[in-house]
Amino acid sequence: MLETIWFILWGVLWAVYFMLDGFDLGLGSLMPFLAKDETDRRVIYSAMGPFWNGNEVWLLTAGGATFAAFPDAYAAMFSAMYTPLMLLLFAIIIRGIAFEYRGKVDGAGWRARWDGLFTVASALPMLLFGVAFANIFAGVPIDREGVFQGNLLTYLNPYGLLGGALFVLLFLVHGALWGAWRTEGGLHERAASLAAKLWPALLVIAVAFLGASWFATPLYANYLAMPVLWVLPVLAVVGLVGTRVAMARGSWGGAWGFSALTIVGATFFGVAGLFPNIFPSSLDPAFSKTAFNAASTGATLGVMLAVALVMVPIVIGYQFWVYRLFSGKITRESPAYE
Amino acid sequence: MDVLFLSRLQFAAATLFHFIFVPLTLGISVLIAIMETVYVRTGDEEYRRMAKFWGKLFLINFAIGVVTGITLEFQFGTNWSRYSTYVGDVFGALLAIEATVTFFLESTFIAVWALGWKKLSPKAHAVAIWLVALASNMSAYWILTANSWMQHPVGYTIRNGRAEVTDFLAVISQGFALMTFVHTVSGAYAAAGFFVLGISAWHLLRGQNVAFFTKSFRLAATFAAAAALVVVGLGHLSGSEVAATQPTKLAAMESHWETGANVPMYLIQWPDPSGERNAVEALPIPGLLSLLAFHDTAATVKGLKEFPASERPPIFPSWLSFKIMVGAGSLLLLVALGAWLVRGNPAGRPGFLRLMVWALPLPWIAIETGWILAEVGRQPWIVYGVMKTSAAVSRLATVQVATSLVAFVAVYGILGFIAISLMARFARRGPVAD
Q: What's the pTM value of the predicted model, to 2 decimals?
């Protein structure tokens, strides 16, 4: 029972992470297409500045919770994905430093170098997460002891790359909508039009991914066994359609909210299909790391659950407060970020 | 060069680099919080400018401290997967609690503090920095508890082929962890104190912003002196804790070979590990090692020969890092007490101010060698007496780890250089009018 609760919480942590960091990764990647001058760039940085660091902690917590609740799965997953994870780490390191340091020296060359690194370091994680999760859905060649029997190219299969494309588009739309919501003038126009152009591509890729998942993964087995789960992909579809409708009505906050729903629904589509696997083996189902064979003891799961039940609502409370504190349009006259 | 060696090197590089920046975060957040509190209570604008000036240096340092911490959490899974599987039930929980309870608080409110000067009342703004200081110090508690469990495992049993928790309360309240926490955090406070003292001294020597830097100096002097007293006192107690719990580490750091009673400490000594003896031993202080280890000059202290060679830590690095740590620690205590004595009118003591500028790195030397001693001295165990480091490493291709190690050293090297240059630049510029 505790294992199942932790499996759901594990999904929640990833979903919230993608919903929150998704917009700043997406907006960061779009910077060169949106910003016409230095003021535009400062406005874009300001639109993410108060939030990105707190958003990223959801990733640390998702990683930490995997370690604590399912150590065997954490060990197999993180060592099997060694090189992609290292790339992710370097991207996160450089991105965080770019946020803080790009404005510290007044020089066009200095800022341009950090902006370039920032764009790449924002785009790379979206792709890596997509490829990684699609491969997890399909199964990864790990042996009886959880040791990876492949190489980096193993992950770059068509379904993995389709997953990468899906995540990239999900986050780009999410980021463009955040930009459209929080800025005004030319920047707002460009972000809004970019979101409108990216949305059809997202729709196509999302349909393709749902279809390909039928052939490439065993995800649908849980849906056929337990039809109530269909509500999760339906939520993703509702979010996707709602995003377009809200965009058409010029409600950018609403569109962002629907886009968040799409991301949460899509994450849970995968997580619910995965259950009880966390890191399935493509060599033999008996080698798979599941919520049951990879779990910590009841004592640890219980302590962790108590901590989560107390702390997570508090975290959501103060993060919500921060989003409200720094709400409203960012104008060209007063971009707070240096 | 095998995966084990490369993984150890990578973890050591990541930890030692991370811990250049973390101590400053731990201490200076508290100093800034005090400055802002004085400003809120007295309305003295100079304290607000102090919070802003030191805060700018803090933010440059904080950014690099945070991002290099993420690496460490991930490396348990990437490079030490068999360790993660074996002890995840105990160790993973501590890391997860650290993330949930403290990282969120720290990362969320650092942004509120950095960007909220105009959005919040002075009082609410001061609360934000107190929350950051509280969170980073609590974070230190959780991670040091996790490390202490590797040094001195308690509250677990080996079952189903892994370490399982039997008493979580014992894990988070054990004496070793509390002592390590106070020792490490007071060392960090001393580092932050020396940072503020050193930069203030540099400006006072040039007669710039004298009132501003005198106030900074005064605050930091008291802070550093108190921290130095605690860190040295706790260092001594940690020594007896090591004697009781990790006899091989104690013997290695003293290069003590033969078990015996009433063991002296040598003022001049040079280990010869291959000959299982000391090449040089001179000027003994009778009974001092027995006294320091067990509070009794007659006590028996086990020597390295008591243990099979396969269970002895690397002697030379343990011995050398211990000597450097103690040397730097003693010097920093003297300098900190000196700063406290001249705090009334530091500008009138140019000789001492020059010394203070040069003394700035002392806490860092003590801190880094302290970590080397703690981690190297624990070898060959990753969890003392329970799991060998060689059994903990992931089964990876050598080229993967070699590549990532080179990338770490290159990226960290460049970023470290940039961070320290930026701090030096803003430190030299001094406070600016706003």
A: 0.94
